[in-house]
């Protein structure tokens, strides 16, 4: 299993705090393992990451809303994610779970009532659902206005992008679509993702550090991220990816990551759209 170091105990205060009602659109809650056991098929074992520890970090950044994303270590057991939404409170949190094609309507209805707004397909690490379930799951969640969040190896995009275009629900491309910082500006997978963003059907999460090839401070991801922002700022959201699982050496500081986000665009209206307005639309938060 992949090693994991814990998140930082202290977060550096960013140069500027986030605007009111900013939403961290990608983070996880883990443990305690005795109450929420991990899947035997997991690819890593994370340290505990509690709601209290998360909000200490988020308060430093100035974030008031969060999206709790089901991690592969829990497989189909969505209890920790659902409970975390309850602990956070539905006025400030939403959740993304994992469901299979055999999920029944009542289960989806119950999850929807508890603040869940989408399901995740993650095939980059053990424990996630397989791609062949994609059309079946999409057909079932469409009734509830959910979306699908996808984190898949980039070699799958030539086959999957036409499928994504035909799904009856929006798709969120996680972690910059799984593309690396060295992606050429005319790369066909990048161009295909950009077309789907421009169509208004899909979204992209600007969680950038995993795309870096040079490591901290992850400056090499800037051209790829700014390409997404300049093409479709109305389809971008941002997330910390706290507590930064599967990292074995350097643990990023979320204050630095937020400062990097602010450096990707000098337009405060665009920043507010990405941090506040887009998440409110995508995750169905109530208006201010």
Automatic annotation (TrEMBL):
<dbReference type="InterPro" id="IPR032466">
    <property type="entry name" value="Metal_Hydrolase"/>
</dbReference>
<dbReference type="Pfam" id="PF04909">
    <property type="entry name" value="Amidohydro_2"/>
</dbReference>
<dbReference type="InterPro" id="IPR006680">
    <property type="entry name" value="Amidohydro-rel"/>
</dbReference>
<dbReference type="GO" id="GO:0016787">
    <property type="term" value="F:hydrolase activity"/>
</dbReference>
<protein>
    <submittedName>
        <fullName>Amidohydrolase family protein</fullName>
    </submittedName>
</protein>
<feature type="domain" description="Amidohydrolase-related">
    <location>
        <begin position="23"/>
        <end position="285"/>
    </location>
</feature>
<dbReference type="InterPro" id="IPR052358">
    <property type="entry name" value="Aro_Compnd_Degr_Hydrolases"/>
</dbReference>
